[in-house]
Design brief:
Blueprint lengths: L1 E7 L2 E5 L13 E7 L3 H11 L6 H4 L4 H4 E3 L3 E11 L4 E11 L2 E6 L4 H12 L7 H35 L6 H33 L8 H53 L1 H10 L13 H26 L1
Parallel strand pairs: 3-7
Antiparallel strand pairs: 1-2, 1-3, 4-5, 5-6, 6-7
Helix pairs in contact: 4-5, 5-6, 5-7, 6-7, 8-9
């Protein structure tokens, strides 16, 4: 599927027909959005712009030279867009290609940033008169959405911290939730760093119009601020995780102390019962009171052991 945005009598019109490119010049077309494109659509765009579209494998490369590159006529930029899910986040590779002032985007999922910028472009394309401006607009929108996600994650961290501070129930499930939030925080940070690298490459390029330099500087400051914020959130989660593990260990130690105390109390009676369970003559006269005497000796040994442990604990 593709959608072509082009200028038409002072407005922006759209079409999904490949054949319409035959009637459109480079000065008319602003944006070609390829959404899960077919081979025919890719070949048509390559023929129209006289260039080559990167494959999905190339878009997912992590090397710096693969994330952003230029030649005499074309700029290639690849980045990841974070897709929030009910429990975890996922990364979606998005490719940008700038040629003759036209931006070509290749993606495989619906993205809110694209929808928002397309709506703004249709309302007033003079705010984004070239593909370069459209690219910066997409990045601005995407970074705003990332900032919203980071803010929501910060609220979640604060809620978990409050639960621990108020003595709420913490256990394995609570610890797993914190671990998942840590994973999401790392993904968000990775996504923001990827944007930082892309913006840095754009700022070093001499192909972009100078009037967008101020926006790029603002974007870079925003990105640096978001990176610092994610670092703080991750450190806070790590501290919270250590606190929860410490509380769980304390609870386990309390249980172990109880079990140890009970075991030690019953060691003397067990020893006595073992001795008088031996099949030999023992130093108690045979009679009907033998069992009562043994029970009494066992109880005395339990109370004596308990007294000695408490006395020692007071000294410590």
């Amino acid at each position: 599927m593709l959608e072509i945005f082009f200028k038409n009598k002072g407005q922006v019109a759209t079409t999904g027909e490949i054949s319409s490119l035959d009637q459109l010049g480079y000065d008319d077309v602003l944006w070609i959005d390829l959404w899960s494109p077919t081979g025919e659509e890719k070949r048509a765009i390559e023929s129209y712009l006289n260039t080559t579209i990167q494959s999905r494998a190339q878009a997912e490369e992590i090397e710096s030279s693969s994330r952003y590159s230029e030649n005499e006529t074309t700029i290639f930029a690849n980045t990841n867009f974070l897709i929030p899910g009910p429990d975890s986040y996922s990364m979606e590779a998005v490719s940008f290609m700038l040629c003759e002032g036209i931006i070509v985007t290749i993606r495989n999922v619906p993205l809110r940033s694209f929808t928002d910028i397309q709506r703004k472009l249709m309302a007033n394309y003079r705010l984004m008169p070239t593909g370069y401006h459209i690219l910066i607009g997409i990045l601005e929108n995407r970074i705003d959405l990332d900032a919203d996600m980071i803010e929501l994650m910060s609220k979640e961290v604060a809620q978990y911290s409050k639960t621990v501070s108020l003595g709420g129930t913490v256990g394995e499930e609570f610890l797993l939730d914190i671990t998942q939030l840590q994973e999401n925080t790392m993904l968000v940070r990775e996504n923001i760093v990827d944007k930082q690298r892309m913006i840095s490459s754009i700022m070093r390029s001499d192909k972009f119009p100078r009037d967008i330099l101020a926006k790029l500087n603002i974007l870079m400051r925003d990105v640096n601020s978001l990176i610092n914020h994610t670092n703080f959130s991750f450190e806070r989660l790590e501290y919270l995780q250590n606190t929860v593990i410490g509380l769980i260990n304390l609870e386990q130690n309390k249980l172990m102390r109880i079990f140890t105390y009970v075991s030690l109390l019953f060691m003397p009676p067990t020893l006595i019962a073992s001795i008088y369970g031996m099949n030999v003559d023992l130093p108690i006269f045979g009679g009907i009171f033998d069992f009562l005497v043994l029970v009494l000796v066992m109880l005395v040994s339990v109370f004596l052991a308990s007294f000695l442990f408490k006395k020692k604990k007071r000294k410590i």
